[in-house]
Amino acid sequence: MTEEILSVVGLKKHFVVGHTRWPRRTPITVKAVDGVSFSVHEGETLGLVGESGSGKSTVAYTTVGMYRPTSGRLTFNGRELFADNGGRPQQLRKEIQIVFQDPGSSLNPRHTIREILSMPLRVHQKGKNRVEQIVRLLSHVEMPPEFMYRYPHTLSGGEKQIVGVARALASDPKLVILDEPTSALDVSVQAKTINLLLRLQREMHLSYLFITHDLSLMRNVASRVAIMYLGRICEVAETAEFFSNPLHPYTQMLLSSIPVISAAEEELKPRKVISAGEIPSPVNIPSGCSFHTRCPFVMEVCRRVDPVMVEGAPGHQVRCHLFRRSHDVESRN
Amino acid sequence: MTEATLLDVRNLSVHFSVYGGVLKVLDGMALSVRRGEKVGLVGETGCGKTTTMKAILRVLPATARTPDGEIVFLGRDILTLGPRDLSQIRGPGISMIFQDPTAALNPVFTVGEQLEAVIAHSASAAGQALPRREAYQRAVTSLQEVALADPQRLLKSYPVQLSGGMRQRVSIGMALATGPNLLIADEPGTSLDVTIQDQILRLIQSLVNEKHTSVILITHTLGVVRELTDRVYVMYAGSVVETARTPKLFAQPSHPYTQGLLKTVPRLTGGGIASGIPGRIPDYLHPPSGCRFHPRCPHAMDICKIQKPSFSKIDDEHEVACFLYSEKGKDRREP
C-alpha cells in the first residue's frame, strides 16, 4: 500500500441550528458529521458516497478548511491541519484544493476566466509570468487559450466545471476534493470530465477524495469506496471487493435502487433488500444504529447499541451488528 | 393512426423568437403513444424534451410559434383547440408530474386546498358539480393510493412541512386524482436521492399499471427508461433519432448518437467510461444543415451535411433516422 496522505480520525462537526425554550435553553444541534475516520492514500481515489443529508459535503468542507471541526484530528502528510492557533499555514492550503458541485454558482459571473484563474496563482505562485501560467493551466485541461478572455456565462456547464478543475489545480495541490463534480452534467459531458480528471491524476500524481451519490460512477473511478449514512461511515472497502460483496444492509439498499442499463449489471444488484423509508433528520438521529429505522434485518440490539466498525471480510470494514462477533467488543479506535 | 393510438405528435416544429433571430428548437418531432403504453423520451439537456411536453399541454411561452405539425389527442388536434376544450384535456385528459415537486406545489396553500381544487376543477370540466365533502374524500383516497400515511393530517399541511419524497408523492397523487388517460412524468426522480427515486418510480409503475394509464416518461437517465418503459424515443437537437421497443434499444442501439450515449453511462460492472461524444449540442439559432448530429458523428458522410435523414426501418417498431441505414449508406454501415 502506498503512503497515507490524508488521515482523518474521529471527525465530528456539529452545527447549532437553534435553541429550545423550555424547560431550559439548550442548543439544538445538527450532527452533520459524527465521528468519521478514514484515510486517503497517495495517488488513489477514495469515493465517499451517501444520500443528501449524510454529511459527505461537510467532510469535504472541513478537510479543505472552510469549517473548523467540533472535534477530531486531521493530518496531512503528518502535519496537523487544524493547529490550536487557528489559521492554516498557506503551504498547507496550497496542497488541498476543492472542486465544487455546481459550476454555475462557484465561478464569479463578473470575472473573466483569466481573472478567476489569476487569484490562486497570485496567492500561491508568486512572481511568475501569470498569462503564461494561465495558458499552461488551460492547456492542461484541454481548453484553448482564448477562453481566458471569456466570461463564465458564455461557457457550457461542462466547460465551466473544467474551469473549476483548472482553478483547483492552479496552486499545484497534492490532494483534490471533488464534491459531486459531475452531478449537474449530462452523461456524455460527465464522461469527458471524468476522463480528464483521471488523466490529470496520472500526470500530476494527484490524490482524489471523490464525493458523490453515484455508485455506478464510483465503480469506474474509485480505488476504494466509503459509504456514509447520517454522519457516520458504515462501510469501507476496495472497489472490486465492495461491489462484489456489499455487506451493510444500507449499501445493499443503495445498490438495489440504482437504475442500470444491462442484464449483466442487474445480476450484481442485491435482490433481498428493497428501498423503504427516508433518511431521518440529522437533528433527531435514531438511537442505536442510525439505520435501524429503515433496515430490513433490524434486530433488538440495533435499537439500543450503536455498532462499531469490524472487519466483515478481509480488508472490508463494516459497521453493523450482523457482523459483530461478540456483544462485548468495544470501540476499535 | 390506429384505434389504439392515444396521442400522436406529427412533424411538430416549435420556434422561439429571440433577439437576433429565431431559435428552431423542435424540427420535425414525431411521437406516438398507445393506450396503456409506457413510453420513454430520452435525450440530453437542451434537446427539446420539455419543449415537446409543453407543446402537448399548450403551455409554451408567448415567444413560441408552432409553424408546422399537429398534436392529435383522442382524435382532436390540441394545437387548434380553444380555452374551454383545452381545460377538458388538461387534467382529465393529460396530467403531468414535474421534476421538482417543491416548485410544482404552491407554498401558500395547504396540500388539501390544492388537491381538492384540482379534483373539483376536473369534475366541473366534465360537467358535474362536486360537493366539497366528496372532493375531500377523493383527496384522502388519492393520498392513500400514493402510500402516504395519515392523509387527513397531510391535507392540512403546507408543502414545506413535507420531505422531498413526500412532496413528490403528493404531486403524483394530484396528477392521478383526475383519472387522466395520459400521464407525462418529467424527470420524476431526478431531484431525489437514489433510494427515494427507486420508491417513487416503483409507485408510478404500480399505479399506472393498475389504472391502465399511458405514460410519457421524460428523462436523461437511461437506466430509468430501461426499467420502466415499453418503448423508447431517443431525441437529439429537436427531433427523434431512434425509436424501438425498450429491450431492443438497449440490445441493439443503432443510431451513432444512441451508441455514443450508451457508451458513456457508467456501469456497475466497471470497465471504465468511454470518453463521450465529441463536440457539444448545437446552437439552435444556427443549427447544422442536414442531419443535426453530423458535426459530432464519427460516420458522417457528404449526404448528411445536405439532407435530413428520414426514418429507416430496422425491423418491427425499430426505426432510425440515419443515412447509414438507408439504401444510400448501406455499404458504410459497421457490422
Strand content of chain A: 15-25%
The name CATH uses for the topology of chain A is Rossmann fold
How widely separated are the two ends of chain B? Answer: 34 Å
Indicate the CATH topology of the largest domain in chain B.
Rossmann fold
Helix content of chain B: 25-40%
What does this structure look like?
- The complex is a heterodimer of chains A (333) and B (335).
- By secondary structure, chain A is of the alpha/beta class.
- Chain A has a single domain, classed as Rossmann fold.
- In chain A, 32% of the residues lie in helices and 24% in strands.
- In chain A, β11 and β12 (316-318) form a beta hairpin.
- Chain A is globular, with a radius of gyration of 21 Å.
- Mean pLDDT of chain A is 90; it is low at 326-333.
- Chain B has helices at 49-57, 83-89, 101-104, 111-125, 132-145, 151-155, 164-177, 194-211, 222-228, 246-251, 256-264, 302-306; strands spanning 5-18, 21-34, 38-42, 64-73, 76-77, 94-97, 182-186, 214-219, 231-236, 239-245, 312-315, 318-320.
- The model of chain B has no long low-confidence stretch (mean pLDDT 90).
- In chain B, α4 packs across α5 (132-145), α4 packs parallel to α7 and α7 runs parallel beside α8.
- An eight-stranded mixed beta sheet of chain B has the order 6-7-8-3-9-10-12-11, sandwiched between helices. In chain B, strands 2-1-4-5 form a four-stranded antiparallel beta sheet, covered by helices on one side.
- Chain B has 335 residues and is of the alpha/beta class.
- Chain B folds into two domains: 5-93 and 178-332, 3-Layer(aba) Sandwich (Rossmann fold), CATH 3.40.50; 107-177, no CATH class.
- Chain B contains twelve helices and twelve strands.
